[in-house]
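REVIEWER CHECKLIST
Item 1: Sequence provided? yes
Item 2: Single chain? yes
Item 3: Sequence as submitted:
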Amino acid sequence: MHKNQVMNKTIIYFAVLFTLVTTTVQSQTKTTSKPAAKSATPTKSDAFTNKSVIDLHKAGLGDEIILTKIAQSKCAFDLSTDGLIDLKSKGVSADVIKAMMNKSESGTSNAVTNTATVKEPVKPNSSGKTGTPSPELMNHVYVYDKSNQSAKPLEKSVAGIRTKQGVFGGSAMLQVDGAKSAIQINQSESTSFVINTGGSTLPELTLYKLKSVKNKREVASMKVNSFSGVKTGEDVISLNISKLSEGIFEVTPAKKLEKGEYFFTGKPATGANSMDAYTFGIE
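Item 4: Structure as written out by the authors:
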């Protein structure tokens, strides 16, 4: 491959990378009690495909339904670089893409793990109270101390979105100032978090493990290589989600967190060069 061809391919991938990192998730379509005239279901075929996933997403069906459909179906996904880029550009979540890749690796297996499991609400005790905390700041992530049912807000920072280009590709980086968060949690303690959304739907949250570089903390949310394609989720921690009461959700990492720095983020707005981040450290 000539040097000019390699550079041209790299530039194309890098342009796609910058577009993808600022793509917003389409808002879900609200359902009504009246039957719809048309149902946006996958086309009738023997296999569940990329188009099937995109159609369900566009119809406003949540990740849980799509993940269940993947687990129960015979699938024939296109997981090439172009296929993955198309899925991401259409707003398909990283959890769904990961499930598609896992299904392809496992062949006909129906074992697909949903990394964001939503459980039933905690039942009230005899006094009619659940004893759960009620964070004052809306959509702000708090560390949750179950021993006394208290919640302490995580440090809110601004994560800058930038791109880092290499010879054969690039990375989409999220970066916050400072080598260490002001909120530090002892590793021996049970690590749970709580958030008040004010409604029944939890915002899409992602928990990243960060690297400290020159008095900053950063993570590559996406990597693009001219030869190996797109990689996402390498530093993402899976989450379990429980509804404690109306609008109040407990968020628990699926595995014990190692010592280091972390933050929660949501999705960036279209064209945004920064986003809110809720930071903490494990010591």
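Item 5: Key structural point noted by reviewer: Residues 117-282 form one domain.
Item 6: Recommendation: ____
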